[in-house]
Design a protein that fits this description.
Blueprint (H helix, E strand, L loop, with lengths): L14 H17 L4 H35 L9 H9 L2
Length: 90
């Protein structure tokens, strides 16, 4: 079954970019140096960025859950010294 691509309003930034943009918007709005109209536009953009961040986090969480379900009890890694002693016993 083909997955539907995420709906893009503009080009959808990655999580880190969206979060950085959101932080800049918050700083700008907290400065009180912009007009009401600019504040409203920035607030709307902030809501969009917040939703994008939440979606990215949700997808990451789903991937982690899938990986955890698919894995059986993981076997511990062997250290280099354990591998060397196992090879020398042969």
């Amino acid at each position: 079954m083909a997955r539907k691509p995420a709906k893009k309003t503009q080009s959808m930034p990655d999580f880190e970019t969206a979060l950085a943009d959101l932080e800049k918007l918050v700083e700008l709005m907290e400065s009180g140096e912009i007009s009401l109209e600019e504040s409203l536009a920035n607030f709307e953009r902030g809501i969009t960025l917040t939703r994008q961040c939440q979606q990215a986090l949700k997808q990451a969480e789903q991937k982690v859950q899938i990986l955890m379900q698919d894995s059986t009890d993981p076997e511990p890694f062997e250290t280099a010294s354990e591998l060397d002693s196992a090879n020398s016993d042969e």
